[in-house]
Amino acid sequence: MLLYLHGFASGPSSKKAQALAARFAAIGVHLEIPDLTPGENGFEASSPSSMLAVAERLLAAAAPPHAIIGSSLGGYLAAVAAARDPSIERLVLMAPAVRLFERWDRRLTDGEREQWRARGLEVEHFASGRRRRLGWQFHEDARGWPAFPEVRVPTLCIAGRRDDTVPFDDVAEFVARTPTARLVPVDDGHELVASLDVIFAEARAFLAPFTGVR
Fold first, then answer.
1. Helix (H) or strand (E) holding 65
2. pLDDT confidence bin for 214, thresholds 50/70/90
3. What Gene3D superfamilies does the record tag this protein with (predicted)?
4. Which CATH number is 85's domain given?
5. Across the strands, what pairs with 157?
6. Model's pTM, two decimal places?
7. Of 7, 17, 117, 142, whose CB count within 10 A is highest?
8. Which domain holds residue 157?
9. For residues 135 and 38, what is the distance between their CA atoms, to the nearest angstrom?
10. What is the tally of structural domains in the chain?
């Protein structure tokens, strides 16, 4: 299975997901794109663990081997999954959200933490096009996951030098810690939508041993 994991507050309809799915379909490769926060209140009740569980159930139900393309939080979760599951052979990580808990926590004041705990954190939910309140369980769960997952499989990382969400230097540090990883810098921000041609070309070549399509 070639699996795509979307980012925070996103979903299967994201521009990157659909663009890559269409391009892979054109060369005969199916890209599976699940909703990692399914259900009416799936986003509000979500956590890194719950999102990872959706992905891992799909992987367990499909015949190995597997490869994953992940964007932002989905990229981070793909790295966590690969550290746990030997059936995952390759990763393509776009601006993977390493240092997940640390990055969120250092932005919060004590008052903001209490407000999130009491009322939820209101954020723009891009997939539904409306504001939604994320429960405190997301932050509490994120605390238990590693800043830099230990990945041992071939990994392609693509990161924007102008990313103001996940700093480029954080992704570069993950790659420096991961001997099997290669970093492709692009002149782009976090969404990487201006770099889709580069992303697809790099991903197609990198995944050729898995897909059988060059």
1. none
2. confident
3. alpha/beta hydrolase (3.40.50.1820)
4. 3.40.50.1820
5. 93, 183
6. 0.98
7. 7
8. 2-211
9. 15
10. 1
